[in-house]
Sequence to fold (178 residues):
Amino acid sequence: MGAIEGYLHILKDRTLSQDPAVYRQAVDRSLVRIQGMRKLILDLLDLTRIESGNRKRDLRDLDVCEVAKGSIETVMPDATAKQISIELQAVEPVRMAADRGELEIVLNNLLSNAVKYNREGGKVSVALGVLGPRVRIAVSDTGIGMAPEEARQLFQEFFRSRTHRLAHSGERTRGSPS
Fold:
């Protein structure tokens, strides 16, 4: 929201440039941010409905590659700002029966964390594949890492890693690169 507010002040004050293309770019960036916020709000509402039992799963045959591409597009503005490259590795299509909304929530969360906790100029890799009757989704990055004991807690409700705080304090964590 802060980025949008900043762009709106620039547009209001007309202090950026005399070139209309510069202002169009600010409007375009604001629209991308608003779409991301709308998606986040809808994901949170869906998650609330799922946890309360008021949302039924809509299992359908879908291509995980297509969903992953959408999630990559969602995080690209933040990745571009940090000069982070994102690579999708998959032999398309990767089909599975899933609830598209739930899969988007998972992928958006994994990718946004991979970008958020990554270094400037880092990389994110999304690897998709079929392993017999299962689909494998692996997201890796060049970020600060996570200790093995934290990784085991990753999918517990309200879990928050200590690694991010420690990385900014200068301490090293087990499992993070030295």
